[in-house]
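Try this one yourself first.
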């Protein structure tokens, strides 16, 4: 067994690990990046990018099918599943290729392939042939799908997101377990591409939605396209000759059995910490078996070990992994002289249609922080001018503010252009603007942001800082 002594070892060459590597190199050239899987990152290979490519194809099919609304006749689109999947794979390979190229440009002595695990707080074993003695260590091992055991009955027809992006053609039907972020994005896209989809959830959750009104609204809208039961009663899942037979309680028909070609497990992800021999790192662990860490420094306790990205299970999103990786790498490089890194206002977007977005504090966090000293403003997009013009007039936005200070705290949305509105509003939260200050900003006409203004005016009046919202405000322009 070979031994290498390094200043900083980074486990995982995903987004967080690569950020950590670049930041650590500002302090030392004696760095080692350890990767057990393919280079290219989860985001580019099997996550953000291929999922958005599939959604783009689904949007094209959907617009084609719905152009009748505008008097533009269209025939039912012919969906060539082989071409859909070919574009997904080709573009995905292009994105992942950029990452692979840059990792290949790193000096050979800075990287090693193999699975790392702790053998002591400063020592890692990589496969069976290398011991790494590291002054400091960054854990950036990402996450993996957490599939419930009963789904294993689907046998070879059980798939996860990684498998889906390898398809050569679209299947006829897919049962999606988990109406979370991945389930909604992939399930709705498949449905729009002509695949028969049924979605099963537990406990009533839909994506990351916290507000009960928005959740109920979203459930109703998704059910117009494909059956989605967020609290399904499934009694059996069986691999049969025809595919996978699922027996469940249907709201109208009682117990029924439906057969699907595939079962997609989208039931959440678990951090890759349990397979690291983490107990040998001698860190303080929380009740879930996760290392206790500081989200500003990424340091585990007061140790020489840092944890970043999906591995820490805090905010499993790409931009957070990138920020956390940089903070962890910088601090691993400069240890023990560590610094607090910049954390941004929380923001999340689900690329369903309508999109789901959240930013700042959610309603539960608002209640916890402000007790009863908060107010919420609301707007429906059903009659909102620009949304209606575009035939995208579905959805709800709720905005939250603090009584007394008038501070804008956060928002949750299911509606048109939510990805853009979430950015505008998260920038307002980060700038610590009050609701009145946001309302002083320009609003063009006719735009979807006028709907945001209505919600903010509603909030301002409930904070007793402005007049009531005028219904059908004439000087705002028609449909504002
Ligand atoms: C289908 C899907 C869609 C998504 N869409 C979005 C989106 O639209 N927007 C968004 O913000 N986020 C999205 N995400 C989440 C985002 O992809 C992740 O938050 C992000 O990729 C996490 O980066 P990471 O560096 O923590 O992990 P990863 O990129 O997974 O990197 C971890 C690396 O560690 C390696 N590793 C693990 N264990 C070991 C070990 N013991 N030894 C050596 N190496 C090891 C792994 O092989 C892997 O390469 C999506 C995720 C999925 C699955
Ligand atoms: N657009 C984006 O930003 C984006 C896209 C995809 C993934 N992601 C990230 O990846 C993470 C993981 O996504 P995910 O969708 O796997 O997790 P998730 O936590 O969003 O959703 C999992 C869903 O599965 C349900 N579930 C759990 N057990 C179940 C069971 N036995 N049967 C049926 N349903 C069950 C849960 O109630 C939940 O609704 C997300 O939290 C997100 O951070 C982000």
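Now uncover the answer:
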């Amino acid at each position: 067994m070979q031994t290498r002594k390094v200043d900083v070892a980074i486990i995982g060459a995903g987004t967080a690990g690569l950020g950590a590597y670049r930041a650590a190199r500002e302090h030392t050239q004696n760095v080692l990046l350890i990767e057990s899987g393919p280079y290219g990152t989860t985001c580019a290979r099997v996550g953000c990018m291929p999922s958005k490519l599939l959604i783009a194809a689904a949007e094209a099919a959907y617009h084609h099918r719905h152009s009748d609304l505008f008097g533009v006749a269209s025939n039912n689109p012919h969906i060539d599943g082989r071409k859909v999947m070919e574009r997904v794979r080709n573009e995905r390979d292009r994105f992942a290729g950029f990452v692979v190229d840059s990792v290949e440009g790193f000096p050979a002595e800075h990287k090693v392939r193999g699975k790392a695990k702790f053998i002591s707080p400063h020592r890692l074993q990589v496969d069976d042939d290398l011991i790494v003695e590291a002054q400091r260590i960054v854990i950036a091992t990402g996450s993996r799908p957490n599939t419930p055991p009963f789904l294993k009955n689907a046998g070879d027809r059980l798939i996860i997101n990684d498998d889906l992006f390898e398809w050569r053609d679209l299947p006829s039907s897919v049962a999606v377990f988990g109406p979370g972020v991945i389930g909604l994005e992939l399930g709705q896209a498949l449905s729009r591409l002509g695949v028969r989809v049924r979605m099963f959830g537990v406990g009533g959750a839909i994506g990351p939605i916290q507000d009960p009104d928005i959740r109920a609204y979203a459930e109703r809208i998704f059910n117009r396209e494909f059956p989605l039961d967020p609290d399904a009663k499934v009694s059996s899942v069986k691999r049969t000759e025809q595919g996978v037979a699922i027996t469940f309680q249907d709201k109208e028909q009682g117990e029924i059995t439906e057969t699907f070609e595939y079962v997609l497990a989208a039931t959440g992800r678990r951090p890759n910490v349990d397979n690291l021999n983490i107990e040998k790192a001698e860190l303080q662990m929380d009740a879930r078996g996760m290392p206790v860490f500081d989200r500003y420094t990424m340091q585990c306790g007061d140790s020489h070990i840092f944890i970043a990205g999906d591995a820490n299970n805090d905010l499993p999103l790409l931009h957070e992994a990138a920020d956390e990786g940089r903070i962890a790498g910088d601090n691993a490089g400069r240890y023990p002289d560590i610094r607090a890194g910049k954390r941004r206002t929380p923001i999340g977007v689900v690329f369903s249609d309508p999109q789901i977005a959240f930013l700042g504090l959610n309603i539960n966090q608002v209640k916890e922080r402000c007790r009863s000293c908060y107010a919420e403003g609301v707007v429906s997009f059903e009659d909102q001018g620009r949304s209606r013009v575009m035939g995208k007039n579905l959805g709800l936005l709720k905005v939250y503010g603090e009584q007394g200070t008038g501070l804008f705290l956060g928002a949750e949305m299911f509606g048109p252009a939510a990805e853009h509105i979430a950015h505008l509003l998260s920038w307002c939260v980060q700038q610590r603007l009050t609701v009145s200050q946001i309302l002083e900003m320009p609003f063009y006409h006719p735009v979807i942001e006028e709907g945001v203004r209505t919600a903010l005016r509603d909030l301002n009046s409930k904070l007793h800082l402005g007049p009531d919202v005028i219904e059908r405000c004439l000087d705002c322009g028609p449909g504002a």
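Discussion: The chain has three domains: 2-144+270-334, 149-267, 347-473. The mean pLDDT is 97.
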